[in-house]
Amino acid sequence: MIIIKSSREIDLMRQAGKITAGARSVARQMIEPGVTTQQIDREVHRFITKAGATPSFLGYGGFPASACISVNNEVIHGIPGPRVLHAGDIVSVDVGARFQGFHGDCAGTFPCGSCSDEALKLIEVTRQSFFEGIRFARVGYRISDIGHAVQEYAEGFGYGVVRDYVGHGVGAQLHEPPEIPNYGKPGHGPRLARGMTIAVEPMINAGGEAVYVLDNDWTVVTGDGSLSAHYENSLLITDGEPEILTFADDI
Fold first, then answer.
1. Could you tell me the residue range of the domain that residue 47 belongs to?
2. Residue 225 contacts residue 206 (beta carbons within 8 Å)
3. CA–CA distance, 27 with 152 (Å, rounded to integer)
4. What CATH number is given to the structural domain containing 137?
5. Does some domain include residue 187?
6. pLDDT tens by residue, 19-72
7. Confidence (pTM)
8. Has residue 250 been placed in a domain?
9. 141 part of a folded domain
10. 244: part of which helix (H) or strand (E)?
11. Which candidate, 70, 25, 69, 66, places its Cα nearest to that of 46?
12. CA distance 141 to 212
């Protein structure tokens, strides 16, 4: 069942979103050669808890960290650890924060030091595919209209759009109905209504769309070893333009 949020719930989600966006900014600022993914996770955790929230991901389904940090060919759900970042890496950071019962959820992919033109283009196209998609995050459009716009834009650059993982509703639960695929034909699925809160998150591969999960049962990687990028924000459906609840000026 799709949940329409009350004014009070929306206010709490704005606060959760602000904290979540701040945590993503903390992570972005730390991405440089010589830093470990565990160090980034530690600072994300510290930021979220200091803000009076709790990390949404820590312990979720058994996940052992506060942030998912995925490097290069890792698509999503990378587990932070002793891995040292190097110049030329691209680093996807996915964070969530729960504030007074409501979640924010956002992600971004960032260059570590000097990166190839290929990598920078993938990051930018993935980010822009999100904005292409949310042109249809308006009352009266259908869920598939968002995904179709993401797919059409990303595939126009020859990239693969991940099918196995999708966006979702967000609110009192980290993952709520409806699912928000990043692909598909327009005009299908539930209609968007005022007060819905959703997380739109393109996951785009430089190569093919195929992915698989590593033996740690969490980290998803590209099937062909190509680079992957991820961009996500939580949105509120309004009477006009969607409100990005996890927006940050620098991301």
1. 7-244
2. no
3. 30
4. 3.90.230.10
5. yes
6. 999 999 999 999 999 999 999 999 999 999 999 999 999 999 999 999 999 999
7. 0.97
8. no
9. yes
10. strand 243-244
11. 66
12. 32
